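Repro:
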Amino acid sequence: MTALVVAGCGSSTITHPRRAKRDPVAPPAAVPQPRPQVVEPVAGQASGARSSARRDRPPSAAAAPSSDPPPAAALASDDSPPTAPASVTYAPAKGAPTDAEVRAAIARFRLAIARYHLDRLNLSSALLDPSQVPSGQYNLSIASVYTDYGDPIACGGILHVSTLGVANKTLPCGTQVIFRYGGRAIRVPVIDRGPYIAGRDWDLTGAAAEALRFPGLGEIEWRLG
């Protein structure tokens, strides 16, 4: 009877609890990736659309302002003192006449010499003696000849065949100028305005040109005095 009680107790106490069933864990749902939008370009708005797309982005390293120093050219100031003269006074002006222009001017002056008998004028007294010619540097410019006899001149009077003088665009009337050409020198006053052809600085009267044996157009040495 004792054995039955033990057996009964054992059968009543030795029990195995049931394990709770776990539901299977579902895998995480996949997050749909955004699809790129295709934007059709609109004529005339390509650059605007491109710039608006970049507004929400932080500035990249490429867009950051450069810390490099500016080039040397950007540091140069227009107020810096000049290191060279504005023009080279001993060289002929720009716009020197062509060979064809020189030949044409020589031919015209020869006709004027023959027409007005400039070669018969006594101009020896107008020439400077070599001892009277100042030494030093002379300027070199392009000169021409004008023979508009009978016309009024800017500084007063009428241009005559025997008039000794020179025309210049800016020098005051009466300014004395010494010209040298071919070993000869003459001092004449500014009497008129001109020449108004690019590259030319002086217009000698026919008498002044004939005294120097100046052919009609070309380079000539000069200085104020």
